[in-house]
User: Fold this.
Amino acid sequence: VVVDNGTIVGDIIASGTSRLNGITIVNGGEMQGNIIGQHVNGSSGNAMNLGNIDIQSRLQGGITLANGATIESLSLSNGGTITNAVSIGASGSNNQTSILKTITLNGASGINSLVVGSSSDNAGTINSITLGGNSSIGSINVAERGTIANLEIGNASQVGSIGSITNAGKLQNITLNNTSTITNGITNNSGGNIGTIISNTNNGVNNTITNSGTIAKLDIRNVNSGSSGNGGTINYIGDGIVTEEIRVEGGATLSING
Assistant:
């Protein structure tokens, strides 16, 4: 499905064992609706696949995967925008897992919100999320049956930002680079599990972690260590535990507030 300087009014729905090779929205094209992979009674739903989704303009709606649906990749660039939520396994039934393999944002693109998994039934998994080029996600919410394997915000030359991250499931790795920020911080709820958080940010960059769950490793690096400059700050709050290691490189700052 290609929207090239045109408009689709309505939803794209893949049901049962449906498969799409991909969806592309470019050159000022707009889709005024939702992209949905959903279960159909009598079908296991495990073969639902929406392929690769490339958004370089505007999706005036959201993306929903439920009951074993898969997206191979979601790429936003050139100011591409999703105005509503991307929901991976937050709805549905039959105890299945919806999968979005990779999300990549560049070129001042943005997603309003990202929801992964549900509290008790359907599950959701995202293998990797990469933000660069002044791109942003308004909020990320990982429920009890949600998993994000890798989340990287910015790199050595590009910046990304997230409004807030709330985790009650599993977030295996989070990396903050350069001047990248999580405006309202990371909240790891009771029962939430975060593997490693790496902060490799610039002087003057402050990010907050509120931990009521479990974090394995907290690694606070100084991106300017080679030039003897200072790095960023992590403000740590909460009664959760860090089970393996806390490391603070010279010039970086860890502030513990209880």
